[in-house]
Amino acid sequence: MMKKVSLMVLRKECMGCHACEVACKQEHGLDVGPRLIRVIERAPYYIPIYCHHCARPPCRDSCPVEAISRNEWGIVRVDKELCIGCKACVEACPFGAMQFDEEREVALICDLCYERLQQNEAPACSLVCPTRCILWGDMRAIAEGMEQRLL
Amino acid sequence: MGELKKIRTACRSCHGGCGVIAHVKDGRVIKVEGDPASPISHGTMCAKGLAITQLAYHPDRILYPMKKSDTGWERISWDEALDTICEKFKQVIRENGPESIVIGQGTGRDYESFLYRFANLLGTPNVLTAGHMCYVSRVGATLITCGNLPVCDYEGEPKCIVVWGCNPLWTNPDEYKGEGFWRAYKKGAKLIVIDPRRGFLANRADLWLQIRPGTDAALAFGFLNVIIEEGLYDSEFVGQYVHGWEAFQERVREYPLERVEEITWVRRDLIRKAARLYATTKPAALHWGVPTEQSINCTDCTRLLTGLMAVTGNLDAPGGNVLFVPPPVRTVSEFARHQDLPPEQRQKRLGGEQYRLAARVALVTPKVVWDAILTGEPYPVRAMLLCGTNPVITRANAREVYEALRKVEFLAVADFFLTPTAELADIFLPAATWLEQNYVGDFWKRHGYVVARQKVVEIGECWQDHKIFQELGKRMGQAEYWWDTVEDALNYMLAPSGLSWDEFKELGYLKGEMEYRKYLKKGFSTPTGKVELYSTILEKWGRDPLPRYREVPESPVSRPDLLDRYPYILNAGLRIPTFFHSANRQIPWLREIRPDPIVEVHPETAAKHGIKEGDWVWIESPRGHIRQRARLNEGIDPRVIVAEHGWWFPELEGPGHGWDIANVNILTDNDLAISDPLMGSTNLRVLLCNISPCEDQ
Q1: Which of B61, B190, B330, B419 is deepest in the core (most CB within 10 A)?
Q2: Is A17 on the interface with B (CB under 8 A)?
Q3: Is the pLDDT confidence value at B425 over 60?
Q4: Residue B595: burial class (beta carbons within 10 Å; 0-12, 13-18, 19+)
Q5: Strand pairing partners for B24?
Q6: pLDDT tens digits, one per residue of B365-394
Q7: pLDDT for B9-44, tens place per residue?
Q8: Per the CB < 8 Å rule, is B177 touching A130?
Q9: Contact A46 B588 (CB under 8 A)
């Protein structure tokens, strides 16, 4: 079985520069509106909001038309063709990460830069971060990353 | 569909230098990403740089030259635009002399060497930059103190870092990148943060000194006092390489910790702890921010902080504050041909006699230009060329700036958009972004690198600023001093390295060969060959050779008479990670993150005025009032209000575009009496204010 990948932002090391947000918008060609990763500012604290690609995703369970699934890499995905725009998933996400594209009336979520992953490239957000606080990979890689940084 | 090309270049969305890989398809940049091979940024990028495609291809961007006619802006050719400017310049030179022309720039798109070359050959000593209160002021003060600008040596692994009025993670200022600071810090360096506001770094710091805004020079005296009293200085260095140590110590003793505590609001035990930590942890680097410069204390504070680096033996020591060795390319000064400005023209520099240090670094303080325009004294300024600058928003006393720019007989502006400043112009020149230019980037910096900024695309009829100056120069009779193409000029710049522009851009960057503690061989580049804490140059100029603290001109201490009406200290100019001064407000990705101008108010203070989180708030100073949106912040002193700078609203109708709604410089003062006596640095940071909730929310 394929290892499951995920993404984690070390909140203590996020300093609120928003570079990840713009890198994500650029990578996904998103305009104003949906913010697949977002940093809320409460100086001196910065709170990153993003999809945790939960093992049992409440968004998936809430979807009345089974438009949300978790793929073999553990990445939660929304099928835009199936989505009916009811926003049940937006309500269900405990992290406030599920986004909604008002123009197309579909739900939208971080796909961990799936296309990049397939080419062995890291998610766009993680590359630009000046404090390198965005970790990704399988659980072991994330745990190792955390350990290194907390030294 | 064309092929995807990846081109290496260097960002310039702020002071720049971060390595970028631009993705180009069908002649259009579709994406930019960080270049992992960059020795400066290691693949990281900030929000501003990442949003460059939205700036370059913005629907409001002006892509061709324009002139203002009775019916509004009208498209013209480059020939007509340049001829119009040159005709006017020639007339002014004939009737008044070249000094009646002011050439100006903002914080710069890395073209200062071309701008100065043009101005010097034109014969005008009046170059108006941000340098009087940003960076160049620091260069000027350190040149006379230790011969060069000391820069943190993060790669040398400091064990203690003092972040003095700065947020390097957000602003990536000058020679620094937040990423480099962070890596050094994460290797276990102790962190001392001096900041009126508890930000991300203050919150993590080993010691946070919550200073009264504007009193940095007094705090520096406090540090020095502890270091001298407790004998924590490097006596060998001081003995051999400091000029005027006795006299300097005497001056320091005038600022005992009790007095410093009273001035700065920082508890004396905390000052003592911080000074001990800095002086006893080796190596230690001090990272200074621009608030220390935008003040009446600019020169003296810089000299004091240089003193701290010197007496602790951290000057030019690995991991301390070092004098980087530049790569083997021509110097800015040589390229700019400062030597060609005739002495009689130099003597006509506006404010030159008073602001000796500003004159030494070849610039003028803005107020003298506005005065010359508005009063004709000491002689009229009739024509201006402003390049990438928006002084209506970014210079103190914005109403006066607006009035002066409206009045000046002829104004040409080179920029990307019709800013509130550009709207006042007669001629608009469309400038190229960093994606559209070839240049030896970071040419002016003192961090030991130059980087290849390579043209990725061409957009509309935009020209890189360098070409604008080169072509204007040729039309002004300077043809023999310019080249056919910008690339020819770059070959000249690079010549000492033996590289051509084509070779250099393949290489990506050049690094100077660093040598530490150069003073052991050749001393410091000052008249005495030592670090002049007692300045022989200032002495020669008839100024106080020793630094001192001057009370903030508009503070509860200096102006108790104003406190009834203006009971709070306004700390103006909080930096924001999405904007570069007045730029970027029209970029959708960035404005979504930061839609409104923010004023931070302590919750107790807010409650007193019935202000709630998110309310629009009036901020009033003796000069006027503006509105910004309240954010409550427990991390500031209840007596202090913190406001953002640089705000205008591109989405509002021209010509004003809301220049006076939230612009913090409506509130600031540019009176020369409250500017730094040597640099003319304007006080953009600290003044008295009052706040109240806006009636209409």
Answers
A1: B419
A2: yes
A3: yes
A4: exposed
A5: B5, B29
A6: 999 999 999 999 999 999 999 999 999 999
A7: 999 999 879 999 999 999 999 999 999 999 999 999
A8: yes
A9: no
Name the pLDDT band for B217 (thresholds 50, 70, 90).
very high
Average pLDDT, chain B: 97
Give the mutation candidate from B13, B44, B54 for the A interface (greatest A CB count, under 10 A). Answer: B44
Contact A131 B202 (CB under 8 A): no
The backbone torsions φ and ψ at residue B178, rounded to the nearest 5 degrees and listed phi first, read: -55, -35
- The pairing of beta strand B66-69 with beta strand A6-9: unpaired
Q: Burial of A30 by CB count in 10 Å (0-12 exposed, 13-18 middle, 19+ buried)?
A: middle
Task: Choose among B44, B592, B633: nearest Cβ to A130.
Answer: B44
Q: DSSP string of B8-73?
A: EEE--SSS---EEEEEEETTEEEEEEE-TT-TTTTT---HHHHTHHHHHT-TT---S-EEEETTEE
Handedness of CA B473, B478, B483, B484 (dihedral sign): positive
Return the closest-CA partner of residue B134 out of B291, B349, B251, B351.
B291
- Gap from A65 CA to chain B (nearest CA, Å): 32
Distance from CA of A146 to the nearest CA of B (A): 13
pLDDT at A2 over 70: no
Give Cα B286 to chain centroid, integer Å.
18
Cα distance between the two ends of chain A: 32
| B665 contacts B396 by C-beta, under 8 angstroms | yes
Q: What share of chain A is helix, strand, coil (3-state, %, to 5)?
A: 30, 20, 50
User: B274-311 pLDDT, tens per residue?
Assistant: 999 999 999 999 999 999 999 999 999 999 999 999 99
**Residue B575: DSSP 8-state:** -
Kindly report the nearest CA distance between residue B22 and chain A, in angstroms: 12
Q: Measure in Å the smallest separation between the Cα of A40 and chain B Cα atoms.
A: 9
Question: Taking the model in full, what pTM does it have?
Answer: 0.97
Give which of B593, B600, B644 to mutate to test A binding, by max A Cβ within 10 Å: B593
pLDDT band, residue A102 (cuts 50/70/90): very high
B587: nearest CA in chain A? A32
Dihedral sign, Cα of residue B501, residue B503, residue B505, residue B507: negative
Q: How far is B57 from chain A (nearest CA, A)?
A: 14
Helix axis angle for B257-264 and B216-229, nearest 10°, is: 160
The DSSP call for residue B339 is G
pLDDT in tens, B612-643: 999 999 999 999 999 999 999 999 999 999 99
Residues of chain B whose beta carbon is less than 8 angstroms from a beta carbon of chain A are 31-34, 43-47, 50-51, 53, 169-170, 177-179, 182, 186, 197-203, 577-578, 588-593, 600, 633, 635
Q: Is the Cβ of A45 closer than 8 Å to some Cβ of chain B?
A: yes
Please give the residue of chain B at the shortest CA–CA distance from A23.
B50
